[in-house]
Fold this sequence. Notes:
Blueprint lengths: L2 E5 L12 E6 L10 E4 L3 H7 L6 H17 L14 E7 L4 H5 L1 H12 L2 E7 L21 E4 L4 H12 L4 E7 L4 H10 L6 E5 L2 E2 L14 H10 L11 E4 L4 H5 L18 H13 L4 E4 L7 H7 L3 H7 L21 H12 L29 H14 L1 H5 L8 H24 L3
Parallel strand pairs: 1-2, 1-4, 2-3, 4-5, 6-7, 6-10, 7-8, 10-11
Antiparallel strand pairs: 3-9
Amino acid sequence: MIKFICCKESNIPHEIPEDTYYFALYPSHSILRERVGYINIDFLKKIKKLGIFPHVKEFDFVTIALSVAAIDNAMLRQKSVDGWTRNIHARISLSDPAPWNLQRDSLQKAFHFLTGDYWFFDFTAGGWTPLECPNNSSVALLDADCICLLSGGLDSFIGAIDLQTQNKIPLFVSQITRADASIQRELVALLNASERHVALSFSTKTPCKETEKSTRGRSIVFFAYALLATSLIRRTPSEYVEIFVPENGFISLNIPMNSGRIGSLSTKTTHPVYLGFIQRIWDEVHIRSILKMPYQFMTKGDMLTECSNKKLLEQGAFLTASCGKYAHYGRRHCGRCLPCLVRQAAFLKAKMPDKTRNGYVFTSLSDSKINKKTGANDFHAVVEACITAKQQGIQRFLAGELAFASTTDKIRYLEVVERGLHELEFLLLQGTI
């Protein structure tokens, strides 16, 4: 049984058992020890510089989230019994572990849903305590009234536009990635909100010789950083902060396009079940933040069509990035992964000429143009999904994927999947991008 222990560097022993790996939490320098990795060098200094002084519970959740994401990257799936599902034993040092040990079962279920693995947590004392806001602090709290995730994608830009049109004052939170950082800055500039933008990176060095590539756990970092940023918003101790997650319902549900799409390609980042787990855990430990999914019953095409400021939308829509391989293709969209296909279908539905910056690498959906040697594509899976839904009916196609929903919500989710497939089918019938 392999164990992962996440703690301060000073608590890592000189001799490490063969079945154990360590992650040093927030060290001041890079660590070059065998079987020892690290998470977010100088993290405490970085958030202090931003004026972020979180409460202990918020900070401990961030430590749990970052530890999960780091461990997810360290343990190879191919070495598990079935080549996918892992048994992961994690001991994480926190400032106050007591409330989190009470939530151990809920956290294990939440991360099982997210990554598909079996997590076994043990939360111990001795972790980092967040820096306290100094007395007579010059830290200026913001007049923002909510948080909005801003990834650099099209959905997040539409969500930002709609919130500002509704006279909300969002603080935008981004997780920095190599390909998206400049896009995020461009978008907040268009939104005239550069002073209301917090961008944080996630850096980790694995203690193992090999790294896992599927990394479905990395998405929890985005929500953790949003929670951190709530401490920048002026509010009373009893007030809740809304955290808006702008993602269309079709992608959020991420229904497998065929029976082979259940593994690493079926992320549950913003799935209602997963967000429900996180919200209930926050409520149980009295974290005063609420996750909001304003577009859970809309497709990307619906979002484009109903965006509240079309002029601003046209200025920024084509700067956004949707492709999962955007960096791999030199800051270009591949054109044939599911996010790219959904993006193109949405522009067609909204009758917006697709002027995506730098265009698409693959400009034809013709079968003869698709070559496995040039990378994975979702063309055949989408074709199969459209045919199955048409021949067998949408409910047979969904095959129980909406069992989690209430009767009323199930009908609305069914409709959003049906509309999403219609958008994709219309794109396929065009044959070219």
